[in-house]
Amino acid sequence: MSAVADWQPRLVALVCNWCTYAGADMAGMARRTQAPNVRVVRLLCSGRIDPLIIVTAFEQGADGVIVSGCHPGDCHYVQGNLLARRRLTIFSELMDFLGLDRRRLQLAWVSASEGVKWSQVVDEATAAVREAGPLRGFGRPAAGAPPVRFPERPSAPRPAPAPGENEATATALRERAASLLGGGEVAVVAGYAAGSLPGQMVPTFVSDAAGTEVLDWNERCLANLSVYLPELLRRDGRVGMVVKSCDAKAVLGLVREHQIDRDRVVLIGVPCTGVRPDGRLAAKCYPCAEAVSPIADMTAGTAPAGPRAVAPDPRDAEIAALAALPADQRWDFWQGQLGRCLRCYACRAVCPLCYCETCVTDRNRPQWIPVSIDGAGNTAWNVARAMHLAGRCGDCDECARACPADIRLDLVNRRVASVLEARFDYRPERAATAPPPLLTFLPTDPDGFR
Amino acid sequence: MDGWRVSDEQLEGWLVSLLDGTRRVVAPVAEDGLTLFREVTSADEIRLATRHPRTRLPAKETLLPATEVLFSYRLEAGGVALEVPPQPSDQVVIGLRPCDAAGTARLDEVLLADSHYADRRRRTALVTVACTSAGPACFCTAVGGSPGGTEAADLQVVPLQGSWLVRPLTDQGTTLVAGSAEGWPEASDEDWMAAEGQRRAVEATITTEPIPSEWVRGLAERFDAPAWQALAERCLGCGLCAYVCPSCACFDISDAGGALCGSRCRTWDSCGFRQFTVHAGGYNPRPSHLARHRQRVLHKFAWFPLEHGALMCVGCGRCVELCPAGIDIRQSVVRVMSG
Amino acid sequence: MNDFLPQLMRVAEARQETADVRTLRLEPVEPDRELRWRAGQFGLFSVFGAGECALTIANPPTRGGGLECTFRRVGRVTDGLDRVSAGEVVGFRGPYGNSFPVEDWLGRDLVFVGGGIGMAAVAAPLRLVLDRREDFGEVVVLNGARTAADLVFAGEADAWRRRGVRVVRTVDPGGERPGWDGEVGLIPDVFERLALPPDGRMVVVCGPPVMLGSMLRALDRLGYSPERVVTTLENRMKCGFGECGHCNVGPFVVCRDGPVISAAQLRRLPPDL
Asked: What does the DSSP 8-state code read for residue B211?
C-alpha cells in the first residue's frame, strides 16, 4: 500500500534547444514553482525527436513523456517542427493503438517567452500521469494476455476461382514470360512455382524461355515478389515480374524512393480473384477492386470485364474492437503479441520497402533498440518498424504472413495507414504521385499539440 | 514390464500432481490460435494429445532462453560489482514431440560446455509424446529420428486407442511418476506391440528419403558446388529458420543497460543474418545469401555430424513450413548432392 | 562457477600507439588471482555497458606486470576501451584458444609479418622470441601499414634492433611522411624484395583478410612450405570457447581450434573466410 502511496510519476521532457528549453529557463528565472517530476532533455529541434527516443524513455522507466518545440512557423531550422508535427501525430496514434495511455505522451508548443505556459505544461502533464498511475510493464502479462473477442469475419465477397481459370492464367503467363525472355526484353522473370509442401507456391526466377514451364499461378501465390526487384535488377539489368495488384503499391514505393528504375521492369499483371492462404480469402483482398494492377505493363490472360464484388476489409472491424477496449487491456493484448516476437526479422526481410543497407536495429552506436528479445526490446523494434513504414507501407501484408509468431502486424500497419488517410489524406496508391507523407508537411496540417 | 497403460483421468491426475508447486511445469497451451510451450499452472491448460498440432515453436526457450541474463554489473566507488542470477529452478517440460527432444540432445552437444546451460539442463526433465500422425513437413525418419523416438526423453507418453502408455526412460522419469504410478495398470506386451505398430504406421506416411550417412562427407566436399547459387537465390536473409529450429544453438552476447548498471545478456542469433559474421572493421567472411545459406546447411549436415555423429537437424519441418521464401533445407541437401 | 563472468581487471597503464590504436595493460583487481596464458591466445575484453570483444593478448607471459591488449578503435567495445583511463576497471575472460608453436621454432630463422593492427597478434610471439633471443636464429620483422602514422609499435623498432632483429617498415604508396626512410609498397611485394631464402625459415603473418590472402599466395609462390607459415584467424567471436557458432570456418572452430593456424591447415579448410 505504502509503495503505491509513495509513488511519484517520473516524466521526461524532450525539448527543442531554441524555444522550449529557453522557455523552461525563463520559467526558472521567473521563479515559478512547478512539479519536480520532470527531467528535461535538450535536443536541437523537435524535428530531431525520433520516436525511438520516446520509446527509450518509457523503456528506461519514464511514466510519461513531454515533447515540446517551437510553435509552427517559428522553427529555427524552418521546417523541423512541421515535420515533427506529422511524425508525432502518427506516433501518438500508434502508441494509443498499442495501449499506451494518451495521458502519458504530451505534446506542446512552447516558445522562449512562454515560461508560464511551460510550467503549466509541466504541472498538468505531471498531474495527468499521476492520475494514469505507473506505466504498465513491457512484456507478456504474467497471467497471459487477455483474449480479445474479434468479430466473426463475414464471408468472402468473391468465390474461389472456377476450375480452369488459374490454368488459363498460368498458360498465358508462361507465354508472356517466354516471349519476354526469348525476345531479350528481360534477363529474368520473377514468378511463382510449386514449392515442396502440398499446395505451396514459392518465388522462382526464370532466366530462359525453356525454364518458364515451372511458372504457375493460383490463389496460393502469396509472396510479394517486388522485394527481390532491387537485387535482381543489380544482377540482371532488366527484370520481368509477376504482379498482383496488392504487390504493385510496393513497386510504386520502390520507384518513388529511387530504389528501382521502372523502365527496366516489366510488370506482368495476373487477373487475381484474391489470395487464399489457408483456404479463406485474405482480409486484404476483401476491398480490392482491381483484378489486374493498373500499373501492369501487360496482362497474362484477360482481365474480367466490369466491376467486381468487394466488401469492407474485415480487419477494420478488428481494429475497431481493439480501439474500443480500455487502453490497459489494449496494452496487455499487444504486449502479449509482441512478447512472442523472436526478433527473427522475417517481417523486415520480406518487406519490399525495408531495404536499408544497415537497419537501425543492427546499429549499436547508440543502441536505440535493445538487443534483448523481450517485451521492451520487441516493443521498440516493432514501433520502429511501424514508424519507418508509415506512409511507405504498400499494404501487402507480407510482414504479417511471414511472422512465425502470428503477430498481428497487419493491424498495426493498417491502423497507421488509416490515421494517415484521415489526417493527411494519404493512401498507399498515392505513392505514384505524392511524396512519402512523413517527409513532407502542410502548414495547415491538423495540430494536436497544446 | 516397463510402463503403464492409463486413462485420461489417471493421466490428468498425474499432471495435476506435477503442478504441486515444487517445480516449473512447461507444456503446450493454446494462445491466439497457436499452440505454444508456456509455463502452466493448471492441468486443463495443457494440450497434450497429438490431436493438437505440433507447437508452432520448439521448446528450446526452456533451456536456451531467447534472452538470458548472464550477470549484472553495477559501478561502485573505485570498481565494478558483478552479480550472477539465482540458480534456475527445477522444471519439467511436458509434451515435446520426439523431434523436439532430439533437438535438445543436439543443444546438449554444443551447450553443455557452459555452466549456465548445464545448470538449467540438469534441473530439467523432458516428457515426450509419441506422434500419432505426421504433418506435411515432417521428416524425422530422414534424419535418424522416429515418431516414436525416445532420444533425450526422461519419460515417454504414447497415445494409444483412447488411453495412454506411460514409460519412464531415466531415473528422473521414474521419479516424476513415483507417487502416481502406484495403482496404475501395467501395460501389456500387446499394448507395446500396438504402440510399435502405430509408430511404424506413422513412419510409413513420411515420404522423405533418409539421408545417407556418406552424404556428410559428400556435402563437406561440395562446398563449391554450383547448386548453392540457385538454392540461396530466394533467401531474404531473415533469421527465422534458426529461431524456429529446436537444434540451432547459436547465440550472441551483448550488454543491456548503461555505463552505471546493467546486465550482460545472451540472446539467440542466426547465421542467416548478414551481421552474424561481420567484423568490427566491416569485412564480412560470409557476404552473400549463398554463403550464409550454405553455412546453415553444412553446419547441420556436415560440420556438426563430422564432430558429433548425429545430424544437427531433427526433421521437425518448422523451417520448411515457416520460411517466408519457401526454402526447403531437404531440397538444398539433395540438390547439392545430386548437382 | 559462471563461464561468462569476467575477471575484473584494473587498467594499470594506457598507451596511445597511433591515432586510433591503443594498448592497455591490465592487472587483476584481486592481486592473488594468477593469470596464465600462452603467446597467441586471446581473451574477451569487456567494458561494462558496451559489451565484450575478442582481442589477442599482445604481451608474452614471460614479462610479468599483467596482460596487454592492443586494439584499433573500430566498434562499440573498442570505442569503450579507448575511453577508459588508468585506474578504471574493465573485464577479461580467458585466455582462450591455442597458441603459437614457439618450441618448434627453436634454433630456426624467423620472420614476423604484421599488417596494420595485425601487429597486435604478431606482438606476443615476437616479444617472447625477443625475451629468449639466443634460442632462435635470424629474426626479421616486416611491419606494414597504410601510412607511416599508422605503424603499430613503431616506437619499439629500435629496441627490437638492439636485440639483433632486422626491422623493415613499409607503407602504402602515398603513406610516407617527410624523411621516410622505410619501404613503400604492399607487404607481399616488399617481402618479395627482401629475397629471404625460404629454407627452414618460419613465417608468422597476421593482418587484415585481404593482405593475409595475398601474403599467403606470395609465400607459396616463393617456395615457403605451408607447414612453416603460421597465421591467426580473426573471426567475429562471442563466447570464446566453441559454443556460440560465430567463428567457424567449415569444421574449424576458430576460438577453440585456433586462432593460430598453419597455412597448410588453412588450405584444407573451405574458403569460407
From this structure: P
The confidence score (pLDDT) of residue A77 equals 96
- Considering the domain architecture, whether residues B8 and B121 belong to the same structural domain is answered as yes
pLDDT in tens, B301-316: 999 999 999 999 999 9
For residue B227, being part of any structural domain is answered with yes
Same domain, yes or no, for B60 and B21?
Answer: yes
Task: Give the confidence band of B202 by pLDDT, cuts at 50, 70, 90.
Answer: very high
Please tell me the distance from the alpha carbon of residue B41 to that of residue B18, in angstroms, as a whole number: 10
By C-alpha distance, the chain B residue nearest A232 is B233
Element holding B243 (H helix, E strand):
helix B240-243
C131 to chain A, any CB pair closer than 8 A? The answer is no
Q: Both B276 and B238 in a single domain?
A: yes
pTM score, two decimals?
0.96
Q: How far does A26 lie from chain B, in Å, by closest CA?
A: 32
Q: Which residue, B150, B178, B204, sits at the end of a domain? A: B204
Domain span including residue B33: 4-204
What is the distance of C-alpha A422 from the center of its chain?
16
Task: Indicate whether B163 and B72 sit together in one domain.
Answer: yes
Q: Tell me the domains of chain C and their CATH numbers.
A: 7-96 (2.40.30.10), 102-232 (3.40.50.80)
Do B172 and B253 belong to one domain? no
Q: What is the pLDDT of residues B215-252, one digit of tens each?
A: 999 999 999 999 999 999 999 999 999 999 999 999 99
Q: What nine digits make up the cell of A69?
A: 518545440
Q: What is the ipTM of this complex?
A: 0.96
Statement to judge: residues B63 and B158 lie in one domain: yes
Residue listed under C-alpha cell 528419403: B209
Same domain assignment for residues B31 and B161: yes
* Residues forming beta bridges with residue B82, ordered by sequence position: B73
- Sheet hosting strand B261-268, strand order edge to edge: B79-83, B67-76, B261-268, B251-257
CA dist B103 and B99 (Å) reads: 6
> What average pLDDT does this structure show over B334-338?
96
Q: Please, what is the Cα angle at B82 between C11 and A375, to 5 degrees?
A: 120
What is the count of residue pairs from A and B with beta carbons less than 8 Å apart? Answer: 114
| Residues in chain A where the model's pLDDT stays below 50 | 1
Question: Which residue, A341, A285, A335, is CA-closest to A153?
Answer: A285
Hey, which residues 41-80 in chain C have their CB within 8 Å of chain A? 75-76, 79
Q: Which three cell numbers stand for residue A305?
A: 470485364
> How many CB atoms neighbour CB C163 within 10 A?
11
Number of domains in chain B: 2
Question: In this structure, is the dihedral angle defined by the CA atoms of residues B326, B33, B145 and B122, taken in order, positive or negative?
Answer: positive
Q: What band does B270 get if pLDDT is binned at 50, 70 and 90? A: very high
Residue B210 lies in a domain: no
The candidate with the shortest Cα–Cα distance to B157, out of B180, B140, B123, is B180
Same domain, B158 and B223: no
Residue numbers in A near B38 (CB within 8 A):
144
What's the mean per-residue pLDDT of chain B?
95
Residue in B63, B219, B277, B336 to test binding to C, most C beta-carbons within 10 Å: B277
Q: Where is A20: in which H helix or E strand?
A: helix A20-29
- One-letter amino acid at B143 equals V
Distance CA A420, CA A86 (A): 9
Distance CA C259, CA C264 (A): 14
pLDDT the model gives residue C1: 63
Whole-angstrom CA distances from A165 to A168, B30, C238 are 5, 38, 54
Taking 70 as the pLDDT cut, the residues of chain C under it are 1
Subunits with 3+ Cβ pairs within 8 Å of A are: B, C
CA distance to partner chain A, nearest, from residue B36 (Å): 9
Q: Does A365 touch chain C (CB under 8 A)?
A: yes
CB A60 within 8 A of CB A41: no
Give the closest-approach CA distance of B103 to chain C in angstroms: 16
